[in-house]
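Hi all, a correction to my earlier message: I attached the wrong file for Solute carrier organic anion transporter family member. Here's the right sequence:
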Amino acid sequence: MGEPGKSVATHGMTCFSKMKIFLLALTVAYVVKSISANYMVSMLTQIERQFNIPTTAVGLINGSFEIGNLLLIVFVSYFGTKLHRPIMIGAGCMVMGLGCFLISLPHFLMGRYEYEKMISPSSNLSSNSFLCSGNRSQTLLPTPDPEDCEKEIKSLMWMYVMVGNLIRGIGETPIMPLGVSYIEDFVKSENSPLYIGILETGNMIGPFIGLLFSSFCANIYVDFGSVNTDDLTITPTDTRWVGAWWLGFLIFAGVNVLISIPFFFFPKTLPKEELEDNADVTNSNKEEKHQGKAKKEKRGITKDFLPFMKSLFCNPIYMLFVLVTVLQVSSFSITFVFTPKYLEQQFGKSTAEIVFLMGIYNLPPIVFGYLIGGFVMKKFKFTVKKAAYIAFCLSLIEWLLFFLNFLWTCDNVPVAGLTTSYDHERIQQPLYVENKFLAKCNTMCNCLTNTWDPVCGDNGIAYMSACLAGCEKSVGTGINMVYQNCSCIQSSGNSSAVLGLCQKGPDCTIKLQYFFIRTLTGSFFYALAAIPGYMVLLRSIKSEEKSLGVGLHSFFIRAFVAIPVPIYFGALIDRTCLHWGSWKCGKPGSCRMYDTNNFRNIFLGLSAALRGSSFLPAICILILLRKSQLPKETDSSETEFAEMKLTEKESECMDVPRSPESDNDRELKTRL
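and the right structure:
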């Protein structure tokens, strides 16, 4: 009798280890997918400059990932539970690797990046003939040829990036819903919050690594190794700078393939973790019952799809939670995708520095928040009602802290003819009116007025080019070039200018620090609220509908948030552009300078409005939970999940024929 007991105990420990190993592998997959996702978002500005496209197109590139995810999310979430979930997760990781490789491909197919400047690449950088002079037509960039314009626009190499991101979205589809449902099916109910907290922690460690790696790559010139960087006349703070965005995707392509391998060795099912270690007979009975259930589900793979869908749509708490998520994630999507661009324009910092600070200040508090939230939920075993109230209060605190961002603002850099006049009293001229790029000091210089090659005068005013500043000669090469004898610059100095826009004052740096301190506290409260809120989602739906419910929840986020929000918000940002860059053919490209005041009002105002509107359906959820009948707190050996009873309205929605097997399972799972 001793040997069989020993065998059962060993078997239980082996199964327990398999679940731990699966959790580890899935956490690594979460880390890698979140690294590539955050790397993509951080490099959107570099991609925008590389392909010289507006922010609206950048929003389409970002949304293509969600389009790919949206194509399969509902069917993968439902049918994936009937198939081999670990193998599907492994296949998804391999597809993500293919998408990352395709994203990096344009770098190897297109020529070197040529940024917008006043002189042609063949001109001598120390030559003075391109400055303020009446006879310099030989050294200026040639007149655009319409055929060159048509050829340049028809290339559309950024489409490779969009298609690759779409394929990456397809590959990411099975990882989250199938991974979560696999864990939910085979672990104790009381361990589920902790396990999901570990997954979300991995989901946050990835962004930390991704943002740091993004900062590193953004500081490396896109064509490093093939150009002499000493000849560059731009720095990472310049809006024409493009970092080595392609490098990370090439690395992630290989890593995704490697991490897919372990999933092909996991079994389709595992015995469920039990509360009592000595319940050997119960273990055997439940394992047999689960295997029988799996066979029944395989025979009825499509019978319950429509009933499950109707049940979810008739679940008021579930649908209200979806609405709350759509509104809140819309706000988070705006801040997450466009924060690097906003802070770069608002505080005058480089993309690499901004991304690095985002990783330092945002991600550690989120990681600790997820861990603490998961631990507290496991330790105190909060009911659904308590979890909902906790999530609501923490989210409200985070939203109120968000309004502090309106206190820390910086004005536009004064640019002559664009944001200020050419006279030296710094008279602010109205924006979005016909800009006066020419003045008496540069009328005779024959300058091009559509080229963005800014210089900063020693009077503290920037000019769109050295020619428009009236500079007559230059000394030095590369980024150390200094322009002298500038007729438009009248100061106590020598009327000289250096490359680039003028730097914003030290007060902007202090305000940026305040911004990130607020972000640190807000991120911590957001993470604390995430796990209780997610438990409300999981406990508001029946166990047999859990995988489909999670997938449908993700479907709504992608359909109504991840795809449209970056596109329409990118269009709103484009409306705040003060000066557009130009292609060689003369057509407008990406924006070089924004109106920071309007940008700030749209960026912060729309985010605050969306998040604030989410509290109305959240209050409705609290009211419904208060009126709903919840099951008593029972032992996990009695029931698999603590689920709510069906309301009369929901019961009416369930008047759809079901398979007998599903009815029997539902009756067993909804016992109190």
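Sorry for the mix-up. The chain has two domains: 2-110+157-286+314-410+507-579+591-627, 118-153+411-503.
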